Structure formats: C-alpha cells, structure tokens
Amino acid sequence: MKVTAVLVSHNGARWLPAVLGGLAASTRQVDALVAVDTGSQDGSADLVERATGIPVLRLDPRTPYAESVRAALDSAAPAEPDEWVWLLHDDANPAPTCLEVLVATAEGAPADLAVLGPKLREWPSLKRLLEVGVTLTGTGQRETGLERGEYDQGQHDEPHRVLAVNTAGMLVRRSVLESVGLDRYLPVFGTDVDFGWRVARAGFATLVVPDAVVFHVEASRQDRRDSELVEHPRRQERESAQYTLLVNSPGWTIPFRSARMILGGLLRALGLLLVRAPDEAADEVAALVGIFLNPCRILRARRERAGTATVPHHEIRPLLAPFWLPYRHGLDYVTDVGLAVAASIRAESARRRPPGVTEETPFLERVLRTPLVWVLALALIAGRSYLGGEPLQGGALLPVPDALSSWWHAWGTWRSDLGVGTHAAGPAYLLPLALAGTLLLGNIGLVVQLVFLLAVPIAFAGALHLLRRLCEGSAAPLWGAATYALLPVVSGALAQGRLGTVVGAAVLPWLVAAALGLADGTAPVKRWRAAWRTALLGWLLISFVPAAWLVIGLLALFAVVGGYAEGRRREIAIVVLVPLLTVLPWAMGALRSPGAWLVEAGRAATIPVDPGFLDLLLGRTGGPVEAPLWFAIGLPLAAVLAFLRSDTRATVLQVWLVVLAAATVLAAAARVPVTLPGIPFEFRPWPGFLLLTVQAGFVVVAAVAGDGLLKKVSGDSISWRQPVAALTVAAALVVPVLSGGWWLLRGSDDLLTHTAPEVIPTYQQELAADNNLTGVLRIVGGVERGIDFRVFRSGTERLGQDGVLAMTSPDREFGHLVERLLSDARPEDAALLASYGVKYVYAPPPVAGVVNGGLDAAVGLGGASAPALGSRAWVVQEETSLTSIDDTRARLRPLWVVTALGALVVTAVLAAPERRRRR
Amino acid sequence: MSARRAGVGRPTVLGAMVVALTLGMLTLAGTTPAGLGRPVDDPSRVTLDSRVFSCTGGIAGTTTFTGEVGSGLVAPRKITSTPVHTRVDEAVADTSFAGQQARFARQLAWVPCPEPRATWWFVGAGGAVIHDTTLRITNPRTGAAVVDVDVFGRSGEVEAPGLSGITVAPGETRLVDIGRTAPSVGNLAIRVVATRGLVAVSAADRFNIGVVGVTAFEWLPAQAPPSKATTLTGIPAKANEATLLVVNPGTVEAVAQVQIIGKTGTFSPQSLKPFKVPAKSVTSLSVKSFLDGSALAIRVLSERRLTATVRTVVARDTAYGTAALLVRSESAFAVPEGSGRLTFSSLTEAGEVKVFGYDAKGRNVLARTVQVPAQATAGLPLSARVRYLRIVPPGSGVIAGFTVQTQRGVAGAGVAPASRSIRLPQVGPGW
C-alpha cells in the first residue's frame, strides 16, 4: 500500500515547523509527499521546501482547497492500485503514530472502506477533543457529537462509521478521492462533510479511527489565518453547511429543509440578538441570504451530483444527526442562560440582604425581614380593588381595548378609522404596553392592573437599589425609598389613573441607577453598557412621559457645560438621542404639535389641574384624591437643610441641579397652555412626573445628607445644628409614615373603578364593538354653551385611542355636516353621515331644542331607542360605508416604525449583559 | 484659611442660588397661565348655508317685500293661500331681508317674514269673536315637524287639547284658529314649540277697536323668548290707546316693573308701580300716558322670565311692539310703505349707529350716523322713499325698531339680528 501525503499550506508559517516536525517523527513514513502552497505571504512555501527538500507547487492565493488537492494529485506520480492519499493541513500536526494506526486499519479494511479519519484534538491545549467524525443536523449545523471543550479521556476511542471526517489527517483511497472529488464551489469550509456524504452515496464507508490523533489549530475557523478566501469564518461555515445539506438531500425534502432552515435561522438570529451576540446573528442572516439568493449554485451542484450515487438516501440517514438534535442544543442553551440568571439573582439578593440576615436565617424570617415584601403586602392591601373584573378605568385612565392587536395597530399603523379617520401617530407608550400584553398572552387588562398595583413596590425597590448605592447606612435608603415610592400615591397620580406618572415613578430610580454607571471612571465597557441601559430605560420613561426627555436633555446640557461630560460625550449622546429613535413614529407625528411633549400618558385635559406654589413644593397637583399638604412639610425642609452638612454638600448640590432642571421644565410646561390638534381648547398639562422628579430630588438629598447623621452629630460639639437636625429628621421621618397610613386608611375614593360610565347606550356600544360601520355620533350641549360632537367608532374610547385622537386635526367637512344637521339639513346629509360610517346619533340628557329639532327634521334620520331618561337617539336610515372618512396615510410611518423597532432591539441587545463567547 | 473658606463657600453660594432658582421656577409653575381653557379655534356660531324666509300671508292682500342690500328689492309678490318661501344662500344671508305687508284704506299691517325655528311666542292674541288670531304654521324644511301650541289667558293656561302634537309635513302649512280651538275672552299669549323639526309661524290677528268699532288686521310680531329683561320697540310715538301685555309662562307669580328708555335716559315712571303677573297668565295695563311723541322703548323687568308686547291703537289701526334682541352686527330689513321713524335704544353704554336707506330701485337715499346716548333711545325720521335699510350697530349692540305711520294706517316692528333671526349653537368637535 502506498501513502501519498498532500500538504496544503496558506500563511501557516506559525504552525508549519511543528507540522513538518510531526511528519518527520511519524512512525510510518509517507511514501510520497506533495506540497502545495496557495500564495502564502509569510514564507510558508520556502519553509516547506527547506524542510522537505521537495519543490512546492505554488498556486494562486484564492485557490479553493478542493482545487489545491486536485492540483497536487495532478502533479503527483500516476495513481497506483492500492494508493491512499493522506491529506494534511499546515495547522494540523499528526501524532507520531497517527499514520501508522491509520495505515494498519486501511490495510485490513474491506474494499468499500474508502476514508479513514483520525481523532482531532485541540492544538495547542492538546487535550480537548475537537472532532471524532462529523455530521450535519437538519438545520444545516455542523455536528461533532461532542460537548464544548470536552477533554479526551478515551471516551470516544471506539472506531466507528461516520458520515464524514475532517480533511485534516484524512486518509482516503486515491481512486475514490479522484472519482468522487472535493466540491470546488466550497472554498474552505464544509468540503469534508460534503465529500463524506457523497462518498457514502457512492457506496463507500468512512471510518473514524480514534487511536490515530491529529492536533488541529482550526486556524481558518478561528480566524487566525490571513486568507483571502476566509473573510467571515462563521458565516462561511454556516453557509457551506447549509449548502451541503441542500445539495445532498433528496429533492423532495428541499422545500421543507429550506423552510426549516429559514425559520430556524431567523429564530436563531433572534436568540443570538437576545443574548447580545449581534455579529453572530448578522452572520446567521447573511448566510441564509447568501444561500437563498444564489439558487443557481445549488441547482448546478445538484445536477453534478445526479447519477453518481449508488446508495439510496435512506441508507445514509442514520449517519446524519437526529432531527431533534438542534432543539436539544437550544434547550441546553436556554437552561444554561436560566441557570446563569438564577445564579446572578441569588448573588444579587445575597448582596442586598438586610443587615443581620445570613444564609442560615430561617426562610420565613428572611422573608419577613425583607422590606420589599412589606411594601408589596401594603400595595396589595391598598390596591386590592384594582385587580380582577372588568378593565380598570376612571379619572385619566381609559379602559383597555378588547384586543391586544388594537395597541399594536394604533402604535404602528399609517392610518385608522378612528373618529372620522386619522393618520395621526399612536402614542409611544403603546409599544411597551403592547409588548407587555404580548408577554401576558394578550391579557391586556391585566397589564394595566399590574402597572397600578405594582408601581409602588417597583418604585420602592428601585429607590432602595439607588439609595443603597448613594448611602452607606441602611436607615436612610429605607426612609428614602418609602418616601419616594409613596409620592405617586400622595400626589393623587395613582388614584386619578395617571398612567404616565405611575409608570414614570416606577422607572425613574432604575434609570438613575443605570445612569450612575456613566460616572464609572475605570471601565469604559461598563460605561458603554450603562449608557445603553439608561437609553433603554429612557425609552420606557419617555414613551409614557415625553417631558422626561426635556429633563434628560437639560441635564445633558448641564453636564456638557459643567465639564462633567468630558470623556463621556459618546455615552451622553446615546442617552439623549437613542430614546428619541425608539419613539420615532410618535415623535415625527408630534413635530407639528410640540405641546404633545408636555403631555403624559393618560387622557389629557380630563381633570382640571391648577396647582399653586405650595402644592408643587409639597408634591401635590391640586387635583382630587391627594393626601393633606402638611404631611410633606418635612421633605422640602430636609432637602434645603441638607446643605448644612459639609461632607455631602457636593452630592447634594448635584442632585439639586437635577431638581432645578425638572422645575425648569415644569415651569415651562405650566406657563405655556398646551394645544393639541384634537383638543378644542387650551389646557394645562398634568405636571405629575415633573413634580415627582422634583420631589424625588428632595428625597435623594435628604437621604444622602441624613445618612449617618446621628453618628456624625453625636460626635460634634453642641451647637444650634443638633436641634435643627433633630427637628428636621423628625419632620422628614413622619412623611412616609403619614403617607403610608393615609394610603391604607383613606377608603375607596379612587377615581379608578371597574365600571364603565355610559357614554353611549349599551346597545349602540355593543353594535359598534369591532364594527367600524356602526359608528355613533354623540352630541352634547345647546345654544348657550355651544355644541360638542364626537364620533365613537368602536364603542367608547379606549386606552391609546385618546392619544391618537388628541393628535388628529378636526375634519372640517364633518364639522360642517353636523352644523347643517343642527340648522338646516339637506336631503342628502343623512347619506353623507352614513358615508362616514355613522349609524346612530345620540344626545345624552338634557337635549337642547336645537338638537332635537334639527335632527328630527333631517331627512334620513329616524328615531332610535335611547334608554336614559331625557336622552334622544336617532338611527341613520342609510347604508353606512367608510367612503368619506379621511383616507390620508402617513406614508413615512412604516420607516419610522422599523427604525424605532430596530433601535429598540439594538438598545436592548447592547444593554444586556455581555455574553461570554466560547470556542 | 481664606482658601478653605472660599472652598466651603462656593458650594454654599451655588446651593443657595440653585435653591432660589428652583423655588422661583416652582413659583412660576404655580401660577395659572392666562388663556387656560380658551378654545383653540376662534369660536364661531353655525353659519347657515342659506336662510329661508317663509312669507305666510294670512291677511287679505298680503304682498311680500324681499331683497338684498346689494341687489335691491325684488318685485313684490302677492300671497294667496300658499306661503312664499324665499331661500337665499350663504353669501348674502346676512344682508337679505323679507317682510310682508297688507294695506287697506285706513290700515297698514306689516311683519318680517319668519324663518324656521323651534320656539315661537306671540303676545296680544285673541280667541274670541271680536278678537281672534289665526296661526299659520309652515314647515319649509325637508323633514316633518311636530308642534305643540300652548295658550295663556287672563286666568291661566287655556285648555286646548287639540293643539298638541300637530304634525306639519315638509312643505306644508297648518292653520290654527285660536278662536275655534282655544276659545277664550281677553288677551292671550301663544307659545308654539316644535318638539320635532323647525317651523316658521305667523299670527294674523283680527281685532275690533271698540265694542262695535272697526276691525283692524295686523300680524302679531314674534317675540323674544321670555327673559328677566324684555325690551319692547317699534312702538308708535303717539296712540289713542297703548296697552302693555305681559305673559308669565312660569309656574310662580311674577312681579314686573316697567322702565321707559326715553330720549334722555332710562327711568321707572312713578305712576307705574310694580305689578303682579300671575303664573301662566297674561296681564295688561295701559301705558298710553308715556307715549308723548318722542322715541322710546319699554323695558319690562322681573325676577321671573316674562315676555310682552304693547298694543297701540292709532286712529283705525293697531300696531304691536316687538320684544327685540340686541342687534350686534350689520343687519338689513325692509320697512312698509310710508314715512315713520327709526328708533335705536341703548341698554348699556352710548354708541353710534350707521344707517343707510335705499329706495325701491336700490338707490341710497339715506346715510346717517345716529348717536345713541347711554341707556336712552334716539329716533331718526324715516322718509317714505326708503324701502329697506342697512344698519351698522355699535359693538355693545342696540335695540332697533321702526314705526311707519301714515294716513293709511300704522305699523311697527323690531329689527331681528340679521344673520340670527334664529339662534343656532356653536358646533365643534368635543373632547
């Protein structure tokens, strides 16, 4: 038996000396050696020539591996009957006995055994297993059957038949190598699997001989070699594996394989994005695109393979990986991630354990000594009425729509039939709500209920997390967190259904905590991630409270002007600009209505707002369901007196700057009456969140200055400071106590209920639900105060729709139509009304004579049932259609939607913890 | 030492500045901005696409006088049994006018042609042999109307079961003879309420002067809805008889007081003590002594909502004063044939009224500015050549009326706000 070694080198001078050494030390020397070099720049060819003394065949740098082997065989001596070819790479070092073992196996082998492969071990570790034969999964993944980084302990040392072996160290009959041949369309990767598959189809067997060992660097796969043929190793490897699957699988399976590949590829890309591996995700998608944009290559390769097979596909099937293998890998991965997250949570909770609590503390005691548990219990007791039943509504909160799709639609659509047709942008908060609704499997009522129920505990946890980073003691953070978490309660935001402020209160401390990471002077990577985390939380905050962006912008300006931004300009730009991108569809829609930036989530201009100076100073907005003013006197007092403590004065001053920024935006928002296209009067926006930010600042400065105060003051000599400090601390301490007590004991005077007010008769509401052709025109008012009209398209107004309608300019034509109906209706006006999809006209009591008279006299309007005493209703006796409603489309919105989603995904990925990459 | 002090002092000063600025901002934020709640769009009332004048006739020989300031008077048309509807479009709605006139040897009857609306008040009607009123209720609109007619008499509401739920089909006219349907002696007041649709109503009145005297024909003017202050205008300067007729449609007795808006000011005549108007009743009292030949208007004040008229008998003819609303914008109106007097009464401050009169051929024959003293009435002689007028009132508004007194009778009327002979609401999208 003759063994001809073919050594192909390409910029492998780093490993070649060892490889050539290994070859020389081999216990069974090769009978002939053919060396090929594909345009190495590092002197590889000379090195081989010097070591072996034979001339090296020099080829073009872009020569694929298959061509190199072919050229080597062409230049070698003519084939002999029992000649075998030993393929060697410049980065694969055979163990001294490798060839001997392979040859021993080959000599006793049956005629159909054509390919032998060694066991591949990692070089330079030399211990870890790389391959003991390879195969392919149904999704086009190269599968070795080994665990990652598995050590070679002889556990795979049984020779066995496989689909393919790596070309590094492969011993193959020359006749088979020349007749079956390596695929010339595969430049580097995947040639081995494809070759093995075709060898098997040609009726030959491939055997892995684990006693023969080759140490392999996998230089191309690990991108450790300069090569013109390998630019994106991951992508090319993925593409070649998918190519191999498509060109070798039975024809009838191709559509299924393609679908599985595309779907699986996209899911995998998504998964990779979620674990913050955007490059790998891009490679995955690029590989798919590369394969499916080039179907001719597949067809050509399939044509070439046609007729060469002698063995049916089903006999090859056992050599391929089982169909479930990719899913098991996925499950393993998810389990790994889950375990890692659980471990990190465990570590974090151990870090935050209250003083005196150890691992040995009994579970119940540990739970009872956790402040968050108490706050959660308090929130559940105080907000028990929020859960269950019909959708929560009342005050500024509208009921949720019937289906989750309404939120997605309202957020991303370029037009809708709402009112009399609109192309106004949906409010930005619909995206987080829709995402939450999707996570809760469409139970969107629960989303809102949970927001109102858990806002206080989440705000408490966030504030505690933040204040523990700012304070050394444990009492001050606890006081601060409790005071802060109760701010949305005592300001009436919770009971008034102010969704924006409630979510804002829950998000704010987490955002500030993330932003503190920007100050990290040691690790730019941490700063970078902190910027993205702040941007992600900024998106959530700005979606519900657009005015928060103004505060963030103002603070960024302070930072730049004050020199704090030095070396962090890029991070600050991310924090300021990225949230804008994530709310782009709404922001572009709000370009013509800058007032919308001052309006929070929740129905605008519903409850009159007119707070005075004292209200604002003490955290109230002058609306219903507020705690008594005097409860909070201690808070601003403590915030001002915080300046007295010299060692924390710098921090206190910085926080006061934040307070000033919020107060500035608050003043601007309050002084300029806001107008929105869909709201027919000027109004003062609810100042809830900005006020909360001011108060939160007070809480932080008081907590920072109060931290360790007792110890400090007791050490000082007696002066006026001690009594002042004592009084202030006492006044501040009662704030959360009184607020919490008021929350629990104030009774059920919430504006939030589960009962919907009857805006239009129930039967009209039910007919209108999910039916745009049964709109209801509701008319209120009379001669003295004027008449207001509104069109309810699908029953009453729902959460999110108010935001769209507020940004919709009134339809003048429709206004004129209503005017005519109430003054001098034309015979064709009923048909015109019907063409707006209006089936009913409803006037709640008291109905003005002009409304009664006008509508009664209009042709085409007949009397309809109006259950409420003194109300009137008319039915439009014409076939309704939507031909007259506004059909204008915001044509650029899909672009903004894609940009926003893209920005959000990128932000989420970059904000996620780093994924440790393993070989 | 000084360096240390400077180091400590700087944050303190900065802190004081920041606190002061914050408090300043909160003070700013704590004051309500001007304009809060102001409508975004300029509030405008419904502008009608068109106006419909329904000249209903009702008195033999009725002729219509319609036209527009720009294009002049349209050739008069005789009204027979069916009303004449005149529709004018939006562009000229404000400056259009229509009136109907009937002339006999010694009598002149005149009333502006009514436009459809929901509620009508007529005071000074009759339901007896010697004094009878016939309502002409016409529906010029495209939908059916349903009306109720309520009659108030000397001793309360007159039972008239057949006068409720009268359906008036589109384009139809229904006649209601009060003498037949609600026979009653004495002065009556009639309220017509369209419970569905809008109607135009005229009230042709037949009144015997003296027990066996001459029969006078006149239309009762449509009065402003009851209010706590009613101003009557279009009252002849002198009369043989002048009777103030006041109706109280409420369920509680009202005490009314009369004021005269005279040449020099408004005063309450000492001879006219406050008087009672029983609930749902009409009360009358003579005001003849106050008609001294000068221009005047009569104001009836009460804590309850009342409306009224003044019936004057001049020679062999009657005329009725109109409870008019303030005219605040440019208005046009036609006047009957004959000379007379325009009167302008101010309810609050002084102002000037620009008056332009046109003859039958549309030539401008009168252009005057009338100074109206505060809370007084100013008169302007009206030549027989003038057939229609355009007035530009002051911003505070003015109560305008006219009387025409010739050998062939007397007539008077108040001027209704041109574009608002019916009040319509401001309509806008709600929130």
Structure summary:
The complex is a heterodimer of chains A (919) and B (431). Chain A is α/β, with parallel strands linked by helices and 919 residues long.
Strand and helix layout:
The complex is a heterodimer of chains A (919) and B (431).
Chain A: E1 2-9, H1 16-24, E2 32-38, H2 44-52, E3 57-59, H3 65-75, E4 83-89, E5 92-94, H4 98-107, E6 113-122, E7 129-131, E8 135-136, E9 142-143, E10 160-162, E11 171-173, H5 174-180, H6 191-201, E12 205-216, H7 233-248, H8 254-274, H9 278-292, H10 295-305, H11 313-316, H12 325-351, H13 363-368, H14 371-382, H15 404-412, H16 430-439, H17 444-470, H18 475-485, H19 487-490, H20 499-516, H21 524-544, H22 547-561, H23 569-582, H24 584-589, H25 613-617, H26 634-641, H27 649-671, H28 688-706, H29 709-715, H30 721-745, H31 762-768, E13 775-782, E14 786-792, H32 801-806, H33 812-823, H34 829-834, E15 838-843, H35 849-857, E16 861-864, E17 872-876, H36 893-911
Parallel strand pairs in A: 1-2, 1-4, 2-3, 6-12, 13-15
Antiparallel strand pairs in A: 4-11, 5-12, 6-7, 6-11, 8-9, 10-12, 13-14, 15-17, 16-17
Helix pairs in contact in A: 6-7, 7-9, 7-10, 8-9, 14-17, 15-16, 16-17, 17-18, 17-20, 18-28, 18-30, 20-21, 20-28, 21-23, 21-36, 22-23, 22-27, 23-36, 26-28, 26-30, 27-28, 33-35
Chain B: H1 2-29, E1 50-55, E2 63-68, E3 72-73, E4 77-78, E5 84-89, E6 96-103, E7 108-112, E8 119-127, E9 131-138, E10 145-153, E11 156-158, E12 166-168, E13 173-177, H2 178-181, E14 184-196, E15 200-208, E16 215-220, E17 227-233, E18 241-248, E19 254-261, E20 266-267, E21 275-277, E22 281-286, E23 297-314, E24 317-320, E25 322-323, E26 331-334, E27 340-345, E28 351-358, E29 364-372, E30 377-382, E31 388-392, E32 399-406, E33 409-414, E34 427-429
Antiparallel strand pairs in B: 1-5, 2-3, 2-4, 2-6, 6-7, 8-14, 9-13, 9-15, 10-11, 10-12, 10-14, 15-16, 17-23, 17-25, 18-22, 18-23, 19-20, 19-21, 19-23, 23-24, 26-31, 27-30, 27-32, 28-29, 28-31, 32-33
